[in-house]
Structures are given as C-alpha cells and as structure tokens.
C-alpha cells in the first residue's frame, strides 16, 4: 500500500526531517522518493498513482538519460544497417549528425523528464543559430525516433514530441538554380582541357556534368551507372543503384528511384567518349565512369575530384571563395528546365525518382507556372449556377417580385 511518512534524524546536533513516499513502481517493485515538504510528497503520490493506473509512469531508476538512450539507439541503427534491414550506413551517419544538435540541450536530462517545452527550446535554439528549416525539422524527427526507441525499451511510456503543438520552421528547401548563361559557361569550361590534364579526366568531367544537368542524376547514381544500364538503341538509361562512401554499392534512395531516364544527345555523346566505351568494354557489369584501374568512383569522388575543381575553374564562387552551386543543384536545374517546358508534376516525379508527387511539389512547386486553372474552374461553376438561377427566376416571377 502506498503511503507518505515522516522521517526524522539528527545530524551534527541538529534535528532534520523529510517526507518519504513509499510506493510500488510500474514493475511492481518497491520504490522510495523523498521530499522536504509533505504537500509535495502528497502531490507526487497522487500523480504517480494516476500515471500507474493509466500506464504512463516510469520510475527514475527504470529510465535513462537522453544521451544514453541516443547511444543505444544509434548502435541499434548501425546493426540494422549492417543487416541491410531498411537502413544504410549513410542514413545512420545523417541520424548521428542530426541528433548531436539536440544533445547539448537535453542530453543530460532523464528521458522521462523531457517535456514538449524542452523540445521547443531545442527548436528555437537551432533556428537562432541559423540552421535551415529542413535541418531543424530533421533534428526533431530524429529526436522523436529516439523517444520511440526508448518506449520500446520501456524507459518511457509516452513520446513528449507532439508535432501538432510544436512550432517548427518552414520545411521548404531553397533550390539554387544557375542561370542559362552560367550553365553555358559551365559546360564550356567542362569541355575545355586544363593544362597537364589527362584526356580521360576531361571526358569523365563532361559525362558527370551532362548526367546531372540533362538526366537529373544524383552523384551516387552517376557513380553507380553500369554499361548494362545504358541502351543507345532505345535511347534510355535505367537507374537502379547508387554508390556511397559508407555503403558502397546500394539500392537507390527510394524504390521510386529505380527509373528510366532519356538518353539525350549531350549525354549519349559524353558517354561514348568515355574510356570504357572507347576501349570497347562490353561487360554489362562494368561501371560507365571508372578510374584508371577499372574500379568505379565513389559518390564523394564525383564531387571532390571533378565537380569542385570545375566550379572553381568556372569562377562560380561566393565572395568567401566557396562554390556558388553544388553538383546536386544541377539535378534541380534539370527539373526546373523540364518544368519550363511544360512537364507535369507527375512526370517530374518519375524523372527525378521521387517517392511521391508531394516531394516533387515540396521542392519544385514554386517553379510550376500559375496557369489560372483554379480561377477558370471557379468562374465556370459560378457562371453555371447563375445561369440556373436566372432560368429558375424566369419560371417563377413571384421570387423576382419578392426580391424587388
């Protein structure tokens, strides 16, 4: 039976006292908690009994601090990645980066003591620090996953993150797209051989630029392209894999990422000029873009060895000397140019390999032209109703008289 009792003792000749709550926790084990005031002890006992009855109480001794829960969760994610159980090593690395942003704020808090107000404070602090809205949201999503993991481990009963009540920054990503003049200049520089540069390196650079700009491929997809994926007769490329630093060869980012991309003329010419084609390599499993040793490139090598030097040579840099555009921005450019040609969101989704058309609209929705379709439809509905009303009034003169 739970109770509140007074405990008295003497220390250094002085009498001291405290109020002890004696109760059984959610696991049926005896637990004690001490308070200096009887009012606080009574309030704790009442609240605890209510929480135990509805199944939301977890004793402090049965819980862990948020940092410890995070460490266990990341280890769990790494094991999943090793088994390839719906998670990649690159994905775990992104989780690790995101959750580290929250640790300075709530890392040492007992996970049962973290409240929605604490999560809001984390959100506000990250926004104040200048983190993008997308990154802030990713941090909060990752933090929520840690709490879900803690519930599975019975360290917690309820997830404190309620996204409906949390005030989050806008999720819209800022898409940076080079102008057409910048694109022409970039392609000219890509095609021009640098001093002391090997011809093979120049051809690889041109292939990377055209695959990103005209095909909308991600850098890992560029690195993962194989001879058997390219069909010159049908004029298509089948995107079916990606390459990353941590995972090596893996499936595409989403199931929808497996797709066919048109083999337009600039891409076809660039691919035919690659060493793997010049040397008449016929093995379907051979990488289209590869090193001198015949090995495929890493996704990071596509950027560091080819794109970064290209963007610097082209002079497309910020005042601080950093690149003005990422290689991924050429993928965005591919989508924007297709939208400019009147391609629908559904077609853009297919071309880009997005999981849903919602993703397409989230990223590129502002680029689609306002064609006035909504206003046109509303006007037609209104005109139809007014025409019906006019005919009705003509057949019932009494209504017209009443309105006069």
Explain how this protein is built.
- It is a single chain.
- This protein has helices spanning 38-54, 66-82, 89-100, 103-106, 116-128, 133-152, 180-191, 199-215, 219-224, 265-272, 275-278, 299-313, 327-340, 345-352, 357-364, 373-395, 397-403; strands at 3-11, 14-24, 30-35, 230-231, 236-239, 242-244, 248-250, 259-262.
- By secondary structure, it is mainly alpha-helical.
- The strands form three sheets. A three-stranded antiparallel sheet has the order 1-2-3, with helices on one face. Strands 4-5-8 form a three-stranded antiparallel sheet.
- The chain is elongated.
- The termini are far apart.
Layout of helices and strands:
Blueprint: E1 3-11, E2 14-24, E3 30-35, H1 38-54, H2 66-82, H3 89-100, H4 103-106, H5 116-128, H6 133-152, H7 180-191, H8 199-215, H9 219-224, E4 230-231, E5 236-239, E6 242-244, E7 248-250, E8 259-262, H10 265-272, H11 275-278, H12 299-313, H13 327-340, H14 345-352, H15 357-364, H16 373-395, H17 397-403
Helix pairs in contact: 2-3, 2-6, 5-6, 8-10, 8-12, 8-13, 13-14, 14-15
């Amino acid at each position: 039976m739970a109770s509140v009792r007074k405990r008295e003792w003497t220390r250094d000749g002085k009498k001291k006292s405290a109020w002890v709550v004696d109760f059984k926790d959610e696991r049926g084990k005896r637990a004690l908690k001490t308070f200096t005031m009887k009012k606080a002890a009574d309030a704790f006992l009442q609240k605890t009994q209510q929480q135990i009855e509805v199944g939301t109480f977890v004793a402090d001794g049965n819980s862990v601090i948020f940092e410890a829960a995070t460490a266990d969760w990341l280890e769990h994610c790494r094991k999943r990645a090793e088994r390839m159980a719906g998670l990649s090593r690159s994905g775990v690395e992104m989780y690790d980066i995101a959750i580290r942003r929250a640790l300075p704020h709530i890392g040492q808090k007992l996970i049962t003591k973290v409240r929605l107000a604490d999560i809001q404070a984390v959100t506000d602090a990250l926004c104040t620090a200048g983190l993008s809205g997308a990154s802030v949201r990713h941090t909060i999503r990752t933090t929520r996953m840690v709490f879900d993991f803690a519930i599975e481990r019975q360290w917690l009963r309820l997830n404190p993150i309620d996204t409906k009540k949390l005030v989050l920054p806008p999720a819209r990503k800022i898409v940076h797209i080079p102008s057409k003049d910048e694109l022409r200049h970039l392609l000219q520089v890509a095609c021009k051989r640098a001093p002391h540069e090997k011809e093979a390196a120049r051809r690889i650079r041109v292939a990377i630029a055209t695959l990103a700009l005209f095909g909308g491929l991600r850098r890992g997809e560029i690195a993962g392209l194989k001879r058997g994926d390219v069909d010159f007769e049908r004029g298509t490329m089948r995107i079916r894999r990606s390459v990353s630093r941590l995972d090596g060869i893996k499936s595409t980012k989403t199931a929808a990422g497996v797709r066919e991309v048109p083999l337009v003329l600039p891409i076809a010419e660039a691919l035919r000029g690659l060493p793997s084609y010049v040397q008449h390599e016929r093995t379907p499993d051979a990488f289209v873009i590869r090193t001198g040793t015949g090995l495929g490139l890493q996704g990071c090598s596509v950027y560091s060895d080819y794109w970064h030097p290209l963007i610097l040579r082209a002079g497309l840099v910020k005042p601080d000397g950093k690149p003005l555009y990422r290689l991924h921005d050429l993928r965005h450019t591919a989508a924007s140019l297709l939208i400019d040609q009147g391609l629908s969101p559904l077609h853009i989704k297919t071309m880009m390999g997005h999981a849903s058309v919602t993703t397409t609209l989230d990223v590129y929705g502002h680029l689609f032209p306002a064609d006035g379709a909504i206003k046109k439809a509303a006007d037609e509905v209104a005109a139809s109703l007014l025409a019906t009303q006019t005919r009705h009034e003509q057949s019932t003169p009494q209504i017209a008289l009443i309105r006069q």
